[in-house]
Amino acid sequence: MTQEFECECLNRYPAEINSVAFFNEVKAFFEKQVSLGIFEDMPVTKPYYRWKTKDRDVEWYADKWYVCSSCGCLWELQYPEFPAKGVVRKFVDGQFKEEEYHSE
């Protein structure tokens, strides 16, 4: 008999990470989901934000992507660099959507 886990993606929501305590909770949640086989750690392949300056192209990438093995939801985790806040974003259809392309 195998044990099946149901995901919590429908009950979870994107969030701003505004404290070290909350960051630790979020990180522990994702690590537990990976260890249970509910989420899979994926390589980050696309920037969440990019723009051009006079001298170069700049791209910012998330720290982690996770995909739900049950529903296919993609989760993006951007670690905080205080005082800058971190963020957890959710892509229900499993497709990453890059922010608008910006240029300066």
Descriptive overview:
- This protein starts with 14 loop residues before the first strand and ends with a strand.
- The strands form two sheets. The chain has a five-stranded antiparallel sheet with strand order 1-7-6-5-2, covered by helices on one side.
- Helices cover 15% and strands 32% of the residues.
- It has one domain.
- Strand 3 (49-52) and strand 4 (57-60) form a beta hairpin.
- The model is unreliable at 100-104 (pLDDT under 50).
- The longest helix has 16 residues, at 20-35.
- The protein has one helix at residues 20-35; strands at residues 15-17, 39-42, 49-52, 57-60, 64-68, 74-78, 86-91, 102-103.
- 14% of the residues are buried.
- It is an alpha+beta fold and 104 residues long.
- The chain is built from one helix and eight strands.
Q: What is the structural class?
A: alpha+beta
Series of H and E elements = EHEEEEEEE
* Portion in beta strands: 25-35%
Total domains, how many?
1
Overall mean pLDDT stands at 87
What is the radius of gyration computed over CA atoms, rounded to a whole number of angstroms?
15 Å
Which percent range fits the helix content? 10-25%
Q: Which residue ranges are poorly predicted, with pLDDT under 50 across at least 5 consecutive positions?
A: 100-104
Question: Strand sequence of the main sheet, in spatial order?
Answer: 1-7-6-5-2
- Global morphology: globular
Describe the structure in brief.
This protein is an alpha+beta fold and 104 residues long. The protein is built from 1 helix and 8 strands, in the order βαβββββββ.
